Fold this protein.
Amino acid sequence: MKTFRMAALAGAMVMAAGAAQAKSDIVVGLNLEPPHLDPTSAAAGAIDQVLYANVFEGLTRFGPDGSVNPGLAESWEISEDGLTYTFTLHEGVTFHDGSALDAGDVKFSLDRARDEDSQNAQKALFEGIESVEAVDVLTVKVTLKKPDGSFLFNMAWGDAVIVAPESITEIAQEPVGTGAFVFDDWVQGDRITLVKNPDYWGEPAKLDRVTFKFISDPTAAFAAVMAEDVHAFPGFPAPENLPQFEADQRFQVLVGSTEGETILSTNNKMKPFDDVKVREAIAHAIDRQAIIDGAMFGLGTPIGTHFAPHNPDYVDLTEMSQYDPEKARALLAEAGYADGFTTTLKLPPPSYARRGGEIIAAQLRAVGIEAEISNLEWAQWLEQVFNGKDFGLTIVSHTEPFDIGIYARPDYYFQYDDAEFQEMNTELGGEADPAKRSDLLERMQRKIAEDYVNGYLFQLATPTVANAKIKGLWTDAPTQATDLTGVYWED
């Protein structure tokens, strides 16, 4: 099946610094290139960064403030017992190949995501679904096994976007969605291009062409933005350069918050990390502020558990893992590792991981732990660490929203298996009372902090550097997305 291709656009994009900019085009820099283009079958946030809201849409969607808003569903009704959600789809929605969106496509997408053989990285989002029924062309009824106060939230994730059955065989290379932009081209190792969807069912995009340019090297990122070859760079990887951009009237600098809990992730089933004393020792060997200052040039909020500080239910537990090298050495001796040990530290490409990894390796070495660094490309990290669980330590930012529930999944890559936490997570899923939910969330945060499941480092900030005339960019990152549907050039 051939993806819809838009006719050639009028005007050319001028790439030279200082030249007039075509007001219909934009070049956006990103740190990571997606391993493929199917958001429903991979854990790579880089896929959503390009495609979420732009190409693919779900029944609901996240707004720039993290709110859950209508997406392909214009409305919904919830039964009194909280078990049945009846969605009414927007009329006149078509996929980029020209086929009409209907309730059957929604049923296909949700059934595919929750299938026993599903490759969806967030399959747990769909486990509470009992059945999906296409009532009529524009009506879908989803019945849950038990009430779930997070269901509409879950349906806004990039892993829950609606796909066409006809597109599945080619979706990894030729994504076909319903969004305001159509996939145009992918030059692997360089760029992905999207073009405006002239038949979009909702508010049309203001841009005609979007080019995502993949630049992982901080020095190259700085040069590309300074030369105006790149017009906007969300998650700019060289925070040390922000003052220079702030002093240049050609640019704007936006510094927002993310859902990204950056952690020194630990393989809980690998010796010696199966011993809580060893994990606690690692937590006390880490100087969070030194990492924030050295790797992020001061951008980042220290955390002591896997929860976003901007969430009203966040509990500050940083005191539990304060930097204390002497205590770290004592705990290692108690665990039988007075002479230390050697392990792996496998790092994905983002600068927070590569720069932070060097600092953490030095801090661990100071207490007797030799962490052998391996710098991996994103696909290698997914294969070895996330899927293969072949690692001792790694550094990664978990940018999925409200994702503490991953600690209830024993097969998740850091392999934490605790019945008490799993029971609390199950109880949370069926609890609608705000006060009771807050109590459960506090207990869950304390549990993983007390078990020192991972080394909790900082909440990732998201600096965006952009041309001063670009409007509509998200400041915060409530989900892994570069939503360009409302972006435009100011006259």
Notes: The chain has twelve helices and 19 strands. The chain has a mean pLDDT of 92. The longest strand covers residues 251-266.
